[in-house]
Fold these 2 entries.
Entry 1:
Amino acid sequence: MGMIITKYGAVLMRAMGQTLLLALLGLFFACIIGMIFGLMSVIRNKPCNIIAMIFVDGIRGVPMIVLAYFIYFGIPYLLNNTFKIGVTLSALQAGTICLALNCGAYMAEIIRAGIQAVDIGQMEAARSLGLPYWKSMRRVVLPQAIRMMIPSIINQFIITLKDTSILSVIGFPELVNRAKGVVANTFMSFETWGIVAVMYLIVILALSRCAKILERRLNHDR
Amino acid sequence: MTDKTPYTMSESKDAGVYTPDGGHKSSGNVKIHVSHLQKVFGKLEVLKDISTDIYEGEVVVVIGPSGSGKSTFLRCLNRLEEITGGIVEVDGVDIVGKKTDINRVREHVGMVFQHFNLFNNLNVLDNLTLAPVELKKASKEEARSDAVRMLARVGLEDKAGAYPSQLSGGQKQRVAIARALCMHPDIMLFDEPTSALDPEMVGEVLQVMKQLAAEGMTMVIVTHEMGFAREVSDRVLFMDGGYIVEEGTPQEVILNPKEPRTKDFLDKVL
Amino acid sequence: MKKNLTMLLAVSAITAAMTTGALAGEAKTFKIATDTVFKPFEYPDENGEQIGIDMEILEAIAKDQGFEYTMDVLGWDASIAACQAGQADGMIAGASITDERKENGWQFSDGYFYATQSIAVKGGSDIKGFDDLKGQTVGAKIGTQGETYALSLADEYGFNVTSYEDSPSMYQAVIGGQAVACFEDTPIMITTIEDQGLDMKVVEGTANEGSPYGLAVFSDDEQELLDLFNAGLANIVADGTYEEIVSKYLGEAAAADAVASFGTAAETEAE
């Protein structure tokens, strides 16, 4: 085990860095996507509701590994052969899109549920004062909804962080991808996976800890 | 349909001004004109045919059994409920009109809810200043000093920094009234403002409402407080089954009801 | 007393018989793990039967040495773990014999196939050598000698390496343009390109010195398996069975080369 740390510690740390980079990029865009589709599913507009529903159900109905293959190999193939547009996605780009879509679909559901959990009276009171819908949403409903969503969002963040390992299949050099390389080089399976498990654990525990602090802060004024 | 409502107001505004016996406050200007209002939820027809006019400075109390449509009627007046049929005009503006900006109408029509609906994410002061500032009715400073005045008016100037969760029910409702007043409305709608309160807190809220009535505010109040209705209102509407069954001064409707349904209801609540 | 003695004798006799049997390698059944697809060394045929050079060599050696074995198609990663955990006695999966693996407590049989690594590119590509890879992305398979080879050249020639989990993804990346070239064992690439009819070609002159494949075991207790394998391997090379097997999968020329390389492989081992 010591040998792996001295010889491959740097490789694994770099891979953890790539894992975090991918997770952060994916989560950033997932939040935007989730917000857009989450709002689209709560507003009173049938076409928007339907589009949001198709997006969420579509993405949730496809395993992420399939989505990853499709985005990385399928989309450039389609563009090249059907539309004659020579585009290729790097593993990071494809991985980010894949995580953003996948996590975004779950975020949309969390946001929808969060908004719907805010008492309808809050929106009515805001509207009764003459505040337009979006102002009421932004100033009254969303702040309360987000507070309720935080535990679910943190949970989703952790899931997404772990889901980055799936993107090993498109060759993104994240932790699992590199760990497989280390195992193949050293033939030290348990030692390597043990180290990898501890690395994930440390990062996720730290994230959970931060989440707890954030949650307490936000609830301070209640 | 109309023949089922034995006591309906005249449908056109100039056909005659209804002057209740004690209606000294009615100056003759119609603030809210309701004509053949109908509201359907899915298959359920909650309001069948409602027509009435509410005059400037008038205090109208709406009573009736639960499910009679009185809350729905009130919520139609500022279009919190979409109107299925008929006309509602506020200050002569058709509130379902294509060119009507309902938000502008609502700025003049304050509303107080049964469950207070204070913004839980904001403290009392921010609850009061949110709408005036967001709608550019006042600068932040103006809105703040105005809010403090309104809080003083409801006797809660010391609660400006508190969050809704730290207030009692009665305090919440007084803040809610102050919040509505900060928009300087000329009509106030009250949807069962004391129904969710512990009995000992009902008085403080009614006191504030009495004060408002005395200052000449046009008010439409859905309530079960018969004492308050008798003491403060200019006119009482008794609703049942989606119609206004009987209306008149509190002496007429509450003390000498003509309709059997009104008598029935009053027997149960008094 | 007498009865007891008879009993004791009987038990000893049985124990002795069992022990001798085990020592002679007659009763013991070895559990061997292998990769799912590493064509043409191991891969499933149309019926799902695992075939390939590794499979046939082991079968021939077992027949020659008279031992029994079962084959578990676990995949590369799980095969390593299974050997470490003692769930398998050894693995045969085109595993290159490297010093690093040996340093970590693994032992290998004699090399049974000498493989070089090269690059392959898309059919119409004008890449002629490593110099043309500057600024480009190349593909490799995680944990293979091809990957090691690619990484050893990456800095010198200024290209990026993306490591895929399996061969199909790697070839798909070259065809789809996500990578301009891929690094893998030369015989494997030749077979894959031919079998799949891929629009790709191996770039000549890009092969490294290569290293031999061996049967790998993790525990010292498995010395017996290595001894049997080595003895059997020498026999099947000598009697032409080995050449026959390789020829079946890689053609006669490659088979002749493979047989000829035995001298070289042995030397490398000796170093």
Entry 2:
Amino acid sequence: MSFRARHLLGIEHLGPDEITALLDLADRYVALGRSAAKHADVLAGMTQINMFFEASTRTQSSFELAGKRLGADVMNMAMQASSLKKGETLIDTAMTLNAMHPDLLVVRHPNSGAVDLLAQKVTCAVLNAGDGRHEHPTQALLDALTIRRAKGRLHRLTVAICGDIAHSRVARSNLLLLGKMENRVRLVGPPTLMPAQAAEFGVEVTDDMREGLRDADVVMMLRLQRERMDGAFIPSEREYYHRFGLDAEKLAHAKGDAIVMHPGPMNRGVEIDGTLADDINRSVIQEQVEMGVAVRMAAMELLARNLRAARENGDG
Amino acid sequence: MTLYFENARLIDPEAGEERRGNLIVDGARIAAVDAAGPPKGAQVIDCASKCLAPGIVDIGVQVGEPGARHKESFRSAGRAAAAGGVTTIVTRPDTDPAIDTPEVLEFVTRRAQAETPVNMRPMAALTRGRAGREMVEIGFLMDAGAVAFTDTDHVVTNTRVLSRCLTYARSLGALVIGHPQDPGLSRGAAATSGKFAALRGLPSVSPMAERLGLDRDIGLVEMTGARYHADQITTRRALPPLRRAKANGLDITVGISIHHLTLNELDVGDYRTFFKLTPPLRSEDDRAAMVEAVDSGLIDVICSMHTPQDEESKRLPFEEAASGAVGLETLLPASMRLYHSGELTLPQLFRAMALNPARRLGLPAGRLAAGAPADLVLFDPDAPFLLDRFALHSKSKNTPFDEARLQGRVLACFVAGRRVHAKETA
């Protein structure tokens, strides 16, 4: 097994062999999830704490289910409501939790780098469930698994990532992962939602959906946050949908067997046409949710393995 | 008391040269340079071929008095300055409350006199509470000793207010220090826009914001004829308008912090908050351009932009962490990086760190000449050391040079002919 990482803070720190190892294991958990029993007990006796400093339904429940299927004791902490309101700092919160001896800490935080900071202060394995605009590694891994299963490979594909690139941690992690696996990545979106010097990432950048989707194997749509639609970044919802919303006409520029992805939750009629999102011949959005649980199970198992090994060697 | 410094490597920024020689201090002033021999009864100090230079005049030092003495007091700042070869600290008014009345100014002056072994010259706010609305009592504050007027990093956004401040300041010959930055673009930014900021997912500001701010200020200076200094110019794009403004004869000078000359945005690495500065660290291309601009004299002043922050303010996610770095003790050793890399000479460095800032503020310091104040630093530019932030004299230890290999140690520091610091082993 070639997975060496102690934490899963971002795709940036993973090698292609580690990504492949994780996806291979996740494939096995997809099969398990589809079976009647659904249970493996590799995390039995371990404690998993989910700390979400930002509201989340999908990601948090996916991590919770993954932990439970692996037999861990799972605790959810709604951090927006708790100690931060009492003025406790992130570090103090981390130290408090650390004293409860968790084995896996799943963290989402609205500030980029906050999960890295926390990981420096605790002795358990930390999984980044999204930090600010920085990374969302398990989302990129579940997207990769979805693509690999749909396309039979995870290299030499043309992937168009469309929408609000600038504020998206999903886009960051995906373009890093797809780049490491040697795919061709295009970023498509209005220039106000594109990071400065995006072309320096070694990707193609365009503000024309038709050009961006041309001959793409995968079309990955991003969620547009409501608060960005009010004329600050784009003139209006309807103009955005007209120019950047994915519909059948625009999708026709991609390859005939191109798949459509979305990390959810969707704004139907803003970034994606509702009918297209439900088209089981094109959309793999439901598969993404299923892969999410499997990928998170795989990630936690690998980290738990490394954690146990480190503890046995006395440096945990 | 007469001192005779012999066997010195004299760094003379005024002549733009260094040479072997000796120097005589009589009382608080330099009595002679390159005398025939020691005067009778003088205490002889053998410099052992080390460098003797005018003490540093550091424009823009933040001391936590009033309001944040737990971060830095006049006593700790004074010790740090003496240990760093800084013989004059020019203090910032961004305290709590702001230094915007003669009464507060007198308070800090009195505190400095009682607590610091080095010279202190206060700056005052340009507008009340640094809020950018009403101008302060510029005349009274000058009478009380204010050497310049600045709202520091609070940009006066209302051009009508700023133009009136500049016009009024001009009639009194007061120096106004601006912070060239377009506040609309730079609001909330923690990094310079580009590949690094995008990868780290940090809110960022285009380097163009600095040029926009400078362009506006140059326009207002041309309109009012005021004396103007920009606290920090850190980007290549700001240099052409600056060059034009100087060529057009406007009374403009600019500074830069040592951090922007020796570090770049990549030093932030994995969200290291000690590298979070205002303005944020720039690209390597910008850094190199700034060093060239100091070399050509386009940038006049190098400062430490000493900004003490305690651990609690820095141990936060990068966006939320406080900005700024301490620099009084590291200014000289960090500047030696530019000397050892061959980018700048020692006289050039001391022109920017001592002579130019003193001249701009109308102070007699910064020179190795008979009659000048005996504010001197004796240092070894080659001595290597590993910086330990907990060994700093500042109360706050937020230095980006923690655990950095540096060369250049202060051996002794003199203010008005009095030794205020000596290296323990010297």
